[in-house]
């Protein structure tokens, strides 16, 4: 039986179909979770896809934070449930304080839609353990507000605690520079492309691994991330027993 | 009573403001000199119904801190615009600033 993974659908989500496809490629059974529903339908993990939830009015991700489904996601995360946010999903998770930092408007001011290269900082997390190696992973970005920001103290703490999950890198795998470096598409501080929470069960990144899961899409480098997440959710469900539908 | 408020949200000092930088970058084209430190924020006007002004203000403060601003990157101040008649609430409040 394949593991059931929830895909949160907000008004304005637009990468949900890609998320569903990626989960299927990774062998999971995707379950759409409507934003008005306060139940997670007993899924083993939650993926928050990209898009422009609630039109991104006010700040990207902030209105979504107060939706019934996000209250359920926060409860799920507090119990150790695995949550992965991609792009707008990452913004939603930072606004919900489930992840540290904030995503600011791209420092170059432009909406950036192109392929980038990122590298996993750690291969021992629920989101990265099936990634082949530390070679750069090619996948697209498509966002206007993706510049990762936190104050210096927080950045130091994130690095010390191993919460920096992905960084933008050059083709040779070396870490990207600041906003003047094309390899860093949005001017993220310390070239941070993705982070996780202190407990290690909630992660987010700006690039789109879910649209890079098959060679026909131009790259399948994102599959390692999606497959890690799916395998970890399945493992956690096996360890804790099946979750009855509607229990949450 | 109904009280009309404005919440002014601006990027915290030290946070790079690309919008402000873009505005500053356009000054040359306008032939304007001597303008610096441009910061682009957002102004939200709203009417609150409460027993008294202190109660209304408490609602606005919560709204400003939890929704209208992100305390990591933005600061806000609350301005009382005065007592509002209930018909004001049918007007659409203006949310100044560029779309998010």
Question: What does it look like?
Answer:
The complex is a heterodimer of chains A (248) and B (100). Chain A is of the alpha/beta class and 248 residues long. Chain A has one domain: Class I glutamine amidotransferase (GATase) domain (Rossmann fold). Chain A is built from six helices and eleven strands. Chain A has helices at 16-25, 62-65, 68-78, 88-95, 152-160, 223-240; strands at residues 4-9, 29-34, 45-48, 82-86, 102-104, 112-120, 137-143, 147-149, 164-168, 192-196, 202-205. A nine-stranded mixed sheet of chain A has the order 2-1-3-4-11-10-9-6-7, with helices on both faces. Chain A has a two-stranded antiparallel ribbon with strand order 5-8. Chain A is globular. The mean pLDDT of chain A is 93. Chain B is an alpha+beta fold. Chain B has a domain at 2-15 and 41-87: Phosphoribosylformylglycinamidine synthase subunit PurS (Mth169, Chain: A), CATH 3.30.1280. A three-stranded antiparallel sheet of chain B has the order 2-1-3, with helices on one face. The longest helix of chain B has 16 residues, at 53-68. The radius of gyration of chain B is 16 Å and the shape is elongated. Chains A and B meet through loops of A and helix 1 of B.
């Amino acid at each position: 039986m394949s593991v059931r993974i929830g895909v949160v659908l907000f008004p304005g989500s637009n990468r949900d179909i890609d998320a569903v496809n990626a989960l299927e490629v990774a062998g999971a059974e995707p379950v759409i979770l409507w934003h008005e529903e306060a139940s997670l339908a007993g899924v083993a993990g939650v993926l928050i896809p990209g898009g422009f939830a609630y039109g991104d009015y006010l700040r990207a991700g902030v209105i979504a934070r107060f939706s019934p489904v996000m209250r359920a996601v926060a409860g799920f995360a507090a119990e150790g449930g695995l949550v992965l946010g991609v792009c707008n999903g990452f913004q939603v998770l930072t606004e919900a304080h489930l992840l540290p930092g904030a995503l600011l408007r791209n420092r170059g001011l432009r909406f950036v839609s192109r392929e980038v290269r990122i590298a996993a900082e750690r291969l021992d997390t629920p989101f990265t353990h099936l990634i082949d190696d530390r070679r750069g992973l090619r996948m697209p970005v498509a966002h206007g507000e993706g510049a990762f920001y936190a104050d210096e103290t927080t950045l130091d703490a994130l690095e010390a605690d191993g919460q920096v999950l992905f960084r933008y890198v050059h083709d040779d795998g070396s870490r990207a520079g600041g906003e003047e470096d094309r390899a860093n598409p949005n001017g993220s501080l310390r070239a941070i492309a993705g982070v996780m929470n202190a407990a290690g069960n909630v992660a987010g990144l700006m690039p789109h691994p879910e649209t890079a899961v098959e060679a026909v899409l131009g790259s399948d480098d994102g599959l390692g991330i999606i497959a890690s997440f799916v395998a970890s959710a399945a493992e956690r469900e096996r360890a804790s027993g099946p979750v009855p539908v509607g229990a949450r | 009573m109904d009280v009309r408020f404005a919440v002014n949200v601006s990027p915290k000092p030290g946070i790079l403001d690309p919008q402000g930088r873009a505005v500053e970058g356009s000054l040359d084209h306008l032939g304007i000199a001597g303008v610096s430190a441009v910061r682009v924020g957002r102004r939200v006007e709203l009417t609150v119904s409460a027993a008294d002004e202190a109660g209304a203000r408490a609602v606005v403060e919560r709204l400003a801190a939890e929704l209208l601003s992100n305390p990591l990157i933005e600061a806000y101040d609350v301005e009382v615009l005065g007592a509002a008649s209930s018909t004001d609430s049918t007007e659409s409040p203006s949310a100044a600033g560029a779309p998010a």
